[in-house]
């Protein structure tokens, strides 16, 4: 019995070390990736996916390659995602969604690993780093940026920014790391509308570090590239977002921060304390200027991001600040400060730190459940749409429908005129409706009158 207890104690002591935390991370990483792949394997094209697959194709055919590559979509510059989608479509066709989702999954994993590097550089302990990064890996509250392929747009910009933060984190004059960071930033600029926010974030970091030549190298190239696109392509672009009262922007920001913290800790009543701790740790000088400047830059980036989104999207309602895509971005930016705040619980007592880590471990389990549930629901919705498209294509009724009719309102880029093209491209397989319920479903989708029942025989 004594030998067994001693053996268990030695294992526990070894697990408590930094090396044990590293092993713990990589084991959890493999399991987490398996969960993400499991959730991803049943997804299918939906909503904004079709904007790149269908609408951009129509733009290229009617207006040329420049409009195809550079025209704005809801204020976003999508050249890199457009090229990625086109390349995948050329190689794999539209028969499977997985090839389109793989780049987004890789970007998600890269973001998690970059946050891990930043956490360790900011002095976060190995085990707290492991727990917070595993939470981000299976962050069910941010499920859209994990299992929705079009979110490669957001994720590429985020990875470029986090990568640049890691690369410029050194003293002295600019070197190859700063040059590579500037190149990454240009890719990020061409991937989404977050460019001004991330330009400001990296600029703030380098101003705090007083690395003036590095600041010029980091900001000027991407700033000039974005300015060119904004002047010639974004200005005057239409948006479907209704106007909203700008007085609600502070509430929008508060809702975004609060919902993100609630998702990261999951236990009721803890989110407010976690948010205060995350703010406090960024203002605390005890972590050292290198860490503090990084945390302040990340906090500044997250704050400006939510303010900017609020000005653009508050017309959709304050609750839209809690959408999964915004929670994902906010969590990635604030995770290092949150993790370092958890470590400070040790100042109260060792059991306080263990309590904080137990809460984080519980958050991993809860977020995994959210990811599985959201993945199932999103897959079910996309496959319901697919069924509608396939039944409509095989119904023989397309000629009676308005070619501009949208069969599924959630995917407005798919109109009746595109259904035969989708069959030809292998995205769907035309199927004849098998019963009256399916016929009625098709007629509703195509905007046709319901079939009349057969006349009664006297």
How would you describe this structure to a colleague?
- This protein has 458 residues and is mostly helical.
- It folds into two domains: 23-379, no CATH class; 380-445, no CATH class.
- Helices cover 69% and strands 0% of the residues.
- The protein has 19 helices and no strands.
- The chain has helices at residues 2-15, 18-40, 49-63, 65-70, 79-92, 98-121, 126-137, 144-147, 152-167, 176-189, 195-209, 212-234, 249-265, 271-283, 289-313, 324-343, 350-393, 419-424, 436-445.
- Helix 9 packs antiparallel against helix 10, helix 9 (152-167) runs parallel beside helix 11 and helix 13 packs across helix 15 (289-313).
- The longest helix is centred in the last third of the chain and has 44 residues, at 350-393.
What are the secondary-structure elements, in order, as H or E? HHHHHHHHHHHHHHHHHHH
Number of domains: 2
Mean pLDDT: 92
Shape by Cα distribution: globular
Unreliable segments of 5+ consecutive residues: none
Number of strands: 0
Question: What is the number of helices?
Answer: 19
Helix/sheet category:
mainly alpha
Rg calculated over all Cα atoms: 25 Å
Q: Give the DSSP E fraction (strand runs of 2 or more residues).
A: under 5%
Share of helix among residues? 55-70%
Quick take:
With 458 residues, the protein is mainly α.
List the helices and strands and how they pair.
Layout: H1 2-15, H2 18-40, H3 49-63, H4 65-70, H5 79-92, H6 98-121, H7 126-137, H8 144-147, H9 152-167, H10 176-189, H11 195-209, H12 212-234, H13 249-265, H14 271-283, H15 289-313, H16 324-343, H17 350-393, H18 419-424, H19 436-445
Helix pairs in contact: 2-6, 2-7, 2-17, 6-7, 6-9, 6-16, 7-16, 7-17, 9-10, 9-11, 10-12, 11-12, 11-15, 13-14, 13-15, 13-16, 14-15, 14-16, 15-16
